[in-house]
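Lab notebook, bench 4. The sequencing result for the construct came back, and we need a structural model before the next group meeting so we can plan mutations. Quick request posted to the team channel:

Model the 3D structure of this chain.
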Amino acid sequence: MKKSIFITGAASGIGRETALLFAGRGWFVGLFDLNEDGLKAVAAEAGENNCCYAKLDVTDPASYANAVEVFGKASGGKMDVLFNCAGIMYMGSVKDVTLEQQLRTMRINVEGIVIGVYAALPLLKKADKPVILSMSSASALYGVPDLAVYSASKFAVRGLTEALHIELEREGIHVTDIMPLYVNTNMISSQQHKAGTLNIFGANLRPVQIAEVAWKACHQQKKIHWVPTFKLKTLRTLSRLFPFVEKPVMKFLSK
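Done. Here's the predicted structure in token form:
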């Protein structure tokens, strides 16, 4: 039986590229997203024998339970990796982003992962060296202006990852996340308001690069946080050594 990965947000961006990369390397991939047309396109590219797919609303426990059931039947009753990739972002200050949008961000980016962990645990426990992998963000290192609630959601992902890394170790489950700078996806390019940090750093990472990081994270079960790019690793190290510079640096970058 092939190794298997359950991917949320699989219809586009990082989720899509991760699905294609894992399928191309012999894994069975579960494709789950609200975008059914996008799922069908990815499934056709991955190969119908290499995947299953279903519509999924990550904020709905019943929808998630159905998706896990579909996956379990197709994967032989186990799940080697749960990849929490689905996420949304609204750039703008609190006066420009609506309360409804901010709450939706928290529901998808945080509640969606919590629901997924609970739904997937029974199948994860049946796999050998299973992994829970989540998309966090560089904004989980320090709160980013014009991304306040998004940053908060990624801080939550970071905290959840660190706690579950310890808690689920006794179950043999490795919990980890990826914390990149901006990735060149439609989620970024479609933003009407551009945060100052986006203007400074740009969206230079490509989804396929993050897919490669996801591959490493699932096979090299050593790190809690995967931080792509030397630039971000340097900023992270400096913030640890000189925490008093974080606020002035972020104020400068947000201009």
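The longest strand covers residues 28-33.
Will bring this to the meeting.
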